[in-house]
Design goal:
This is Terminase. InterPro entries: P-loop_NTPase. It comes from Nocardioides kribbensis. It is a single chain. By secondary structure, the chain is an alpha/beta fold. It has three domains: 244 residues, 3-Layer(aba) Sandwich (Rossmann fold); 52 residues, no CATH class; 214 residues, Nucleotidyltransferase, domain 5. Helix content is 34%, strand content 17%. The strands form five sheets. Strands 5-6-4-7-8-1-9 form a seven-stranded mixed sheet, sandwiched between helices. Helix 14 links the parallel strand 13 and strand 14. Helix 1 crosses helix 2 and helix 3 crosses helix 4. The chain is elongated and about 85 Å long. The protein starts with 14 loop residues before the first helix and ends with a strand.
Length: 545
């Protein structure tokens, strides 16, 4: 028969019935409103999330999402929401069982559900499981014995670690030690606050139970991941997830519901920050004390620094004070523009053999607009083990670029490419192809400072707001490399680095962009635009004559 929508915006989902079921048979967990009934009319945002969790194929009725991510700021009751879903997975009709006469999906309970709430410490069961244990035992046994009667395993909901279901199956709080030994066949898994999944044992726990979800195809198992913004560089499970989502690398069966503060963050701008808080807290802003949250931003007993407030309260991943440039500035300076063949440009090249990316970045001479010619990056996963930069392809691209555009000069870091750069200089011209060593720290400091300053300021204001004079294309990978860069200090010099030596996050596009921007500046200083004379290199720079 298939799905027949009943109203505008109606999606094929069992979630509508599950929301109604939760309002009838569940309650709020431990806290100020403990035991009070659920009313999703007051929190449509959560209702919509649950509806999306149970979205179905309108023809086959099979679940569309095998993983769902719910990312919100601290205090948004993410663990409680995950607990509601666990209760439904254990007791409610949550799997497709055909269509009714109106073309709406009908649900049935999971047969012998095995549900795991992942815990981050051996000594505690996790907030999600605590919510579930309270609803099933302390509240449910008295209020709805027809649903929860016969459930066992809970003496005190605060310390329980397992609930045995009356119709077969169980709900467990699962620690890393237990997960490593368990070959279970889970039907649902909650991974709560995955920005904390940093240690190898926690990441291994996540991977183990995620793999187990493929064992029960008929049960259509799925994973519910909740989190607040991660701290970049810790390589948490949530950092991996959100990074892949932003890059469009997650499989289509993963749904990410992430909300973070938009636009520039200026905590001194009270009005702006209050609007951002209202946005990230959504419907819950009605009962959150946002004024207090804003006032607490400078209280170091609560937040270590502004970075932590931005991550916890505004749900924005924040690099910290050692970031080379603020993410907001990089985003602000992106603008659409097309660099036509034949235009005057400068080029910057930063090459590698296998460990890092290789980038060729262009810079339009007329205005300093930065754009990638091409970025070669290793693939994800095991395929990266034997990957090498396609050297011949890179060299061919450089030659083709010099034919396609009028290249004033190319600054190329010679490390690992010295012979190739010398060959290019012989064929294209030594006045055009110029080795430029990024290990010359004073010169690199000056070049980085020029680009960073011009990204931050010097442009014409827009709506009274400060703008930089340097713009870029907004290319996803190039922007990612800019945002991955941290400050490396050598005395008074300010250089760039990755967040740690073994980080897989690349910064090569930033290095190449810096060289391109510096090549443009040197060409202008040498007379480009005033005379179209031949430029030659003098003591590492170039002059016109």
């Amino acid at each position: 028969m298939g799905f027949v929508p009943q109203f505008e915006g109606h999606i094929c989902s069992l979630g509508y019935d599950i929301v109604d079921w939760l309002e009838a048979y569940a309650c709020h967990g431990p806290g100020d409103v403990q035991g009070e009934p659920l009313d999703f009319a007051l929190d449509q945002e959560v209702a919509d999330h649950i509806i999306e969790c149970y979205r179905l194929d309108p023809i086959t009725g099979r679940r569309l999402h095998d993983e769902v991510v719910f990312s919100r700021p601290k205090g948004r009751a993410k663990s409680e929401v995950a607990g509601f879903v666990v209760v439904a997975e254990a007791f409610a009709p949550v799997r497709f069982d055909g269509w009714n006469a109106d073309g709406l999906p009908i649900g049935k309970p999971v047969t012998s559900p095995l549900i795991k709430c992942l815990a981050t410490e051996e000594s505690q069961a996790g907030n999600t499981f605590e919510n579930v244990a309270y609803i099933v035992s302390d509240w449910g046994a008295d209020m709805h014995p027809e649903i929860y009667g016969g459930s066992s395993g809970v003496r005190q909901y605060q310390s329980a670690t397992a609930i045995y279901l009356p119709h077969g199956g169980e709900i467990r709080a699962c620690t890393s030690g237990a997960a490593s030994k368990d070959g279970g066949k889970e039907t649902h898994v909650v991974a709560d606050e995955t920005h904390l999944y940093v240690l190898p044992a926690l990441k291994a726990m996540y991977a183990t139970v995620a793999r187990n979800l493929g064992k029960r195809k008929i049960a259509q198992p799925w994973l519910h991941q909740t989190s607040t913004a991660y701290r970049p560089g810790e390589m948490s499970v949530f950092e991996d997830t959100l990074t892949k989502w932003r890059k469009g690398e997650l499989r289509e069966t993963i749904y990410v519901n992430h909300r973070e503060a938009k636009g520039k963050i200026d905590l001194d701008d009270r009005e702006r920050t209050m609007r951002q808080l209202e946005y990230v807290y959504g419907d819950s802003a009605a009962w959150q004390d946002l004024e207090r949250k804003y006032a607490e931003r400078t209280d170091t007993r609560i937040y270590e620094d502004e970075e932590q407030f931005i991550r916890y309260a505004l749900n924005r991943p924040q690099s910290g004070k050692d970031a080379w440039i603020a993410k907001d500035i990089v985003e602000r300076q992106a603008t659409p523009s097309v660099v036509e063949p034949g235009e005057d440009i400068a080029l910057g090249f930063d090459g590698s053999l296998n460990d890092d990316a290789t980038a060729l970045i262009g810079c339009r001479m007329s205005d300093g607009f930065l754009f990638p010619i091409r970025i070669w990056a290793s693939p994800e996963g095991a395929a990266a083990t034997w990957w090498e930069v396609p050297r011949l392809e890179v060299l061919a691209e450089i030659r083709a670029t010099c034919e396609r555009y009028n290249v004033s000069r190319l600054y190329a870091d010679p490390h690992e490419w010295r012979s190739d750069i010398e060959t290019l200089a012989e064929k294209i011209g030594e006045e055009t192809v110029i080795p430029w060593a990024t290990t010359n720290y004073t010169a690199m400091h000056n070049a980085l400072d020029r680009l960073r300053t011009d990204l931050m300021q010097g442009g014409d204001p827009v709506d009274g707001k400060v703008m930089g004079r340097a713009f870029h294309s907004g290319d996803r990978l190039m922007v990612e490399h800019f945002n991955n860069a941290y400050v490396a200090r050598r005395g008074r010099l300010r250089l760039v680095r990755k967040e740690h030596d073994r980080s897989p996050r690349k910064i090569d596009s930033l290095v190449a962009a810096t060289l391109a921007y510096e090549a443009r500046a040197d060409a202008i200083a040498a007379g480009w635009g005033q005379q179209r004379s031949r430029l030659t290199r003098v003591t590492g720079r170039a002059t016109a004559h």
